[in-house]
Amino acid sequence: MKQIVRATLGALALTLGAAAQADGTSPLWEIKGKSNTVFLLGSVHVLRESDYPLPAVILDAYREAEALYMEIDLDNLDAGEALQFTLERGSLPPDRSLRDILGVEAFATADMRATAIGLDLGMFARFEPWVAALAVVQAQVASLGLLPEHGIEQYVLNLATKDGKEVLGLETMADQLGVLDSLELDRQGKFLMMSLEEAEGAREQLDGMIAAWRKGDSASLAATLSQEFGEFPDLYAPLIVTRNRNWATQIADLLDDDRDYLVVVGALHLVGNDSVIELLNTRGIRATQR
Predict the structure, then answer these.
(1) pTM of the prediction?
(2) 71-103, pLDDT tens digit by residue?
């Protein structure tokens, strides 16, 4: 379950390889504090094993950092937390089903599309649509060979565990899941349908995003972010804007420390008008892309 959440809340599954610095930039930003340095790394939560090794500039930043922050503290994550949250908050009342929420016709379409990506929608009959949507994204990226165990967070966590570096979290698993659970059921249903529609053309979409990423094209990624959430402004605000604001505050506080930090967050949180980078800039904190 925690892998499904990480795959979805990253907003997009981008592929990062050693060629990421094609135009001299990378998904790494550097901020100089009073007596320390804070690096911000745009993460991709699911990758292929063939996407390694990472660019040297990222590994250099990791080595310089004395402690790490991630969206959630993966080093101290309760494996049952996401499952418990889902059962308690994602279950439907006894008199309602996923078919009831979607409607007979939409459910039939959703079931057909889910089957096409190897997912039995009937398994989620007693759950709210957001639970099924998470599973859809997981099935979609897995079919393309993109796995959380090859994602940036897991890779960096493995290094930190080996080197004995402290790993901290900007938020909790319950915070992340609560964003989706807070949506009205009808909006959750539309979110599920959108996820299934996008699954059909996922490979082509991902190829385009990969190309933009490898060129360091933040403008294209920001446009993708805007397009992805254009139909869901009520999801964009809590999933992107509110979290970015919370993170920017925490990151700004790190600049008063004397330790160097590497902060790893989803790549699309670092692009666009509401990005962590822009929010820090409004505070007079300048981040330089490496």
Answers:
(1) 0.86
(2) 998 877 776 888 899 999 999 999 999 999 999
Q: Residue 212 carries which side chain, given as an amino acid letter?
A: A
Tens of pLDDT, residue by residue over 96-111, are 999 999 999 999 999 9
Number of structural domains the chain divides into: 1
Domain carrying residue 165? 2-289
Which tokens belong to 196?
A: 């299934």
